[in-house]
Amino acid sequence: MQNHLLQILALFAMETPVSLDAEDIRNEKVKVLRSMRPIQMEDVVIGQYKSHTKGGVTHPGYTDDKTVPKDSLTPTFAAAALFIDNARWDGVPFLMKAGKALHTRRAEIRVQFRHVPGNLYNRNTGCDLDKATNELVIRVQPDEAIYLKINNKVPGLGMRLDRSNLNLLYSARYSKEIPDAYERLLLDAIEGERRLFIRSDELDAAWSLFTPLLKEIEEKKRIPEYYPYGSRGPVGAHYLAAKHKVQWGDMSLDQ
User: Family, per the entry (predicted)?
Assistant: First the structure.
């Protein structure tokens, strides 16, 4: 979370740079990180996966590993709500989660749009948050894609709404092979291109967010919430999302 996900967040939330020069881009990323509110313990959920049997196959828990102490409190999952105190993002929660032994492996950004006040279609959509919220999804991996999930009218004489995706799947749109992430980084390193690399002040700003939190978790010996191997993570993560009136994107059927 401190490294890859925070970099994605900074790239997404930054203002338009003066140019595409590496220093201009990194300047804007640092501004975002420095504007972020200190992470509060009540906005964080940590977890650890436990053994789970599914389809006759038993998957071991984290502490079942011979190299891991049986009383280990090491988290294998974390979810957090972050806030950026600037004019553009004031009051907007950024929910971030990462974990091992989850039901699927993916890296993506999901932008859930706010509900329209006095929605005329409430009778058709009810109070189902997943149905009533349009969502922009930027999938980093696997199967790179950008798609917009919208609620549209079903053709016909009636008035019924349905969920559809306006989809740009890169592998379907472009026949050429998409370079692996580390291929791109290695090429940038060879060519001296620094746009995707972290500057020292950016690294300091990132660790200044997470270091106090990590220290507090360690000092208080906070016990992680257990979740089954292959699940969507601890139940507490869903309560965290509900607290901020959003829903994790991987909870929807069409995702």
Answer: Belongs to the glucose-6-phosphate dehydrogenase family.
Neighbours of 235 (CB within 10 A): 14
Closest CA to 242 of 93, 40, 82: 93
Over 80: is that where the pLDDT of 133 sits? no
The owner of tokens 């009810």 is 126
The catalytic residue positions are 4
Q: For the chain, what percent of residues have pLDDT higher than 70?
A: 92
Q: At 108, phi and psi to the nearest 5?
A: -160, 160
pLDDT at 210 over 60: yes
User: What is the C-alpha separation between 158 and 124, in angstroms, rounded?
Assistant: 11
* Cβ partners under 8 Å of residue 32, min gap 6: 9, 10, 13, 14, 84, 86
In the structure encoding, which two tokens stand for residue 18, read together?
Answer: 């003066």
Contacts of 47 (CB under 8 A, 6+ apart): 75, 76, 77, 78, 99, 224, 225, 226, 227, 233, 234, 236, 237
Distances (CA, A) of 33 to 68, 80, 96, 123: 34, 15, 15, 41
Find the helix or strand (DSSP H, E) in which 164 lies: strand 161-169
Tokens describing residue 120: 């005329």
Residue 142, token pair as written in the block: 């696997």
